[in-house]
Specification:
397 residues, mainly alpha, two-stranded parallel ribbon, elongated
Length: 397
């Protein structure tokens, strides 16, 4: 206690047990010191054996460090009591996310999770559940908090399932009070989900096996749909031309088979099988599918927009674009091997100018479009830096 009062070499304590009377400045100082934060410690606890409520109120009233502009510390006794009506209000508001849309109970959670597919509703839910959990953390462990604990666990479970399904990390509620997080994680674990394990990617060998465990075709189709969307978003910048077409094809399937869950499940399973089979296979002769094909897609798309016609594989221009792609990518690979290349703005601009000149010499794209295309190719190289630097470079048959 003496160290907490003097501050001399005082450790960062989690709890202070008070069994003698302290008043005024000494009381406030002791509470402030035990309430100091550190990594993994958001607050401290005062266990009062003799009843210090009167002394604490007097100290807060007399202190020159009292609330400015009408605010007051929420950690005091009055602050906790004032938080209870706010807790009730925030509890109602988070429940209204579902009730206002016809879902009157949190159990079963499936309708709630389905509702959160809408990004705007998901953002509304996230804001309200975080506010609710923040208030609950302030009131706990007082008995007034107990009626809200069950819903806190279920709402956290809904958030976790939605986070996995929609690949939305914000719904993992990482920023909430650690006691709330522990409460929710224990409940989630009891439902058979390990909160520490991220959802399985479609490229994982066990993805379709996990999908099969879902209880019905709607759940299975939903899992595949959102996993595919996430994979496309994740890799879009690596190969915009390919993943734009992939996205358009996926959304067309979803729109065509909307609410026909059996057919949608079958179509999405076939979609995934085809994409996994295509991944890493040579689709354009003379090009490495990982190193060169993404850039070929970008250049081919730009040239097709310029000419207004699709390049066919038997067209002489098709072979010219292949050669242009190989030359451009091999030149980029050589330049970006320099340590911290992307941090050097001069080096990046120099690379863009070189790519620009190479494209200009090819005569495939109008001059007024070349600067934007060169910038896009270099940005694509940045997104594929690791592959370009460490790839095997075996691109010829």
């Amino acid at each position: 206690m003496r160290m907490l009062l003097t501050g001399f070499d005082a450790p960062v304590e989690q709890a202070m047990y008070v069994d003698r009377r302290i008043i005024e400045h000494d009381l406030l100082q002791a509470i402030a010191r035990v309430n100091r934060k550190r990594l993994g410690k958001e607050c401290g606890y005062v266990i009062d054996y003799i009843g210090l409520a009167r002394e604490l109120r007097a100290a807060l009233t007399d202190s020159e460090e009292g609330a400015e502009g009408g605010s007051r510390p929420s950690t005091g006794i009055d602050g906790v009591l004032d938080e209870i009506p706010r807790l009730r209000d925030r509890h109602q508001k988070v429940l209204d996310v579902f009730r206002s849309r016809g879902i009157l109970d949190l159990i079963p959670i499936d309708p709630c999770v389905d509702l959160l597919e809408d990004v705007k509703i998901r953002a509304e839910f996230l804001n309200r559940v975080q506010a609710f959990l923040a208030s609950l953390a302030i009131v706990m462990p007082r008995p007034e908090a107990l009626p809200f604990v069950r819903d806190a666990k279920i709402l956290g479970f809904i958030a976790k399932v939605a986070a996995n399904l929609y690949r939305d990390n914000q719904l993992n509620l990482e920023g909430v009070d650690r006691r709330m997080k522990r409460l929710i994680d224990e409940y989630v674990s009891a439902q058979g989900i390990d909160p520490r394990i991220a959802p399985v990617a479609i490229t994982d060998i066990g993805f379709l096996k996990q999908v099969k465990r879902k209880k019905n075709s709607r759940a299975r189709a939903s899992e595949m749909k959102h996993a595919l969307r996430h994979q496309i978003r994740l890799r879009y910048d690596e190969d915009p031309a390919h993943f734009r077409k992939l996205s358009e094809r996926l959304e067309a399937i979803i729109k065509q088979l909307k609410d026909n869950w059996d057919a949608l499940e079958e179509a999405l399973r076939k979609f995934i099988d085809e994409e996994l089979e295509r991944e890493g296979k040579q689709t354009v002769p003379g090009l490495d599918p990982r190193l060169h094909a993404p850039f070929f897609g970008t250049l081919k798309e730009a040239i097709e927009k310029e000419t207004g016609a699709e390049l066919k594989s038997d067209d002489p221009a098709f072979k010219e674009v292949i050669d242009l792609t190989v030359a451009t990518v091999d030149y980029i690979r050589e330049k970006i091997r320099m340590v911290d290349f992307w941090r050097d703005e001069h080096s990046r601009r120099s690379l863009e100018k070189s790519v620009y000149r190479s494209l200009l010499r090819s005569g495939k794209v109008a001059r007024d479009k070349l600067e934007e295309l060169a910038t896009r190719v270099v940005e694509q190289a940045r997104n594929l830096h690791r592959l370009l630097v460490w790839g095997n470079g075996k691109h010829r048959d």
